[in-house]
Write a structure and sequence with these properties.
This protein has 140 residues and is an alpha/beta fold. The protein is built from three helices and five strands.
């Protein structure tokens, strides 16, 4: 577990942490809520942490990511979703809990379908965002 909630963490510092965690085999929970993680760049760094291939090295994969109340926006959230959508193709990725409350996500379409995408995700919390269009969630 790594808890870095409300420590004024920015994208540059998150990149350093992502680089350090690439080979760390035992991280299952990461809390970077209430920081200054922003936009596409911040989302890319979080996606890199999600994408660690730890089961191949005898470790465990990240299953809880708490990144509420940053400023990822739709572009940053999209980077995380890209990684999650493809996780069904890998046995070592299993993010189950994702909290992106209060990230200024204003437009998103997530399609949950029977194609194994998002197969491990059990809870997605998106409260306190500013959706400009109605978002549809479909489980099939």
């Amino acid at each position: 577990m790594l808890y870095m909630k409300s420590v004024s963490l920015n994208n540059v510092e998150l990149e350093i942490i992502a680089n350090a965690l690439v080979n760390y085999p035992y991280l299952h929970t990461l809390d970077v809520s209430e920081n200054r993680i922003e936009g596409k760049e911040g989302g890319l760094h979080l996606a890199r942490i999600i994408d660690r291939k730890m089961n191949l090295k005898g470790g465990i994969q990240l299953n809880t990511l708490l990144c509420a109340f940053n400023n990822l926006g739709s572009k940053g959230f999209k980077q995380i979703c890209k990684k999650l959508k493809n996780e069904g193709d890998r046995e070592d990725t299993m993010l189950e809990y994702l909290d992106v409350r209060g990230n200024n996500i204003d437009n998103v379409l997530i399609k949950f379908s029977g194609d194994r995408g998002y197969m491990y995700l059990r809870q997605l919390i998106m409260d306190d965002n500013k959706f400009i269009s109605q978002t549809y969630y479909r489980l099939s």
